[in-house]
Amino acid sequence: MPVTHVAPRRLGCGTVLTAAALLLTGCAAPGTQPAAAPPGASPAATVAADPMRSALAAPSPATSAPGTLPGLGPRTTAAIPADAQQVVLATGQEKNSSTTTVQLYERTAAGWTPAGPLWQAHNALRGWTGDHHVGDLRSPVGVFTLTDAGGLRPNPGTKLPYTQSSAFTIDGSGFNGEDLQGSFDYVIAIDYNRKPGTSPLDTTKPLGEARGGGIWLHADHGGPTHGCVSLPTDTMAELLRRLDPGRHPVIVMGDAASLAG
């Protein structure tokens, strides 16, 4: 069952931000070599296993009754706060997959209704976990509030509190050798092991350092992350414009099997 966090939670993008010298825990570290591939896997095997890298399409989300969120079981559905009127649904292909589909839903009189297209995304190199810790190279499963945003670029028009800063500068290479530059042009902090209501750059971790930090939605760099969920840059800008703090947005994220619980 996913670990649910809808109150102050902290975690991170597993990333060293060049200007801020912050060590988070969800994304590839600028200016450093990425962590080793899963045991027994060569770098070539890691690249080949990445469906987005090899142009293989992710599966369509599970079908569901009209007005409900597709693929969610009763426990996951019950974990969504009653006041949430926007849900970013990030459904991982498999528990150990780094490929995810993301779609925005809004609560209407008819129930949950898609409010945007289905987007292709990446998650952590080794997939998903309900018990995230530093260095496990997995994205946390659960329901988390979305309260704060920021980036290297100016605010694209979001109503979320937005921090523009050069501290979002990143360089180096990802797991597939891809350039990480621009990955933090736009970010949305996922409230896992962080203090909601603060900049994504804040390093407070209420659950402790061992539980990680800096788990974000951010711009995709063409490969798996250390723990974040990444979308194309233009998609991130669009999502930022659509999210409204007055509608209490949350992200429901995890592999399909976990979310079906």
Automatic annotation (TrEMBL):
Residues 98-253 form the L,D-TPase catalytic domain. Pathway: Cell wall biogenesis; peptidoglycan biosynthesis. The active site is at 218 (proton donor/acceptor), 228 (nucleophile). Residues 55-77 are annotated as: Disordered. It comes from the Bacteria. Residues 1-28 form the signal peptide. Coiled coil: none annotated. Pfam families: YkuD (PF03734). Keywords: Cell shape, Cell wall biogenesis/degradation, Peptidoglycan synthesis, Signal. PANTHER family: BLR0621 PROTEIN. This is L,D-transpeptidase family protein. It comes from Kitasatospora cinereorecta.
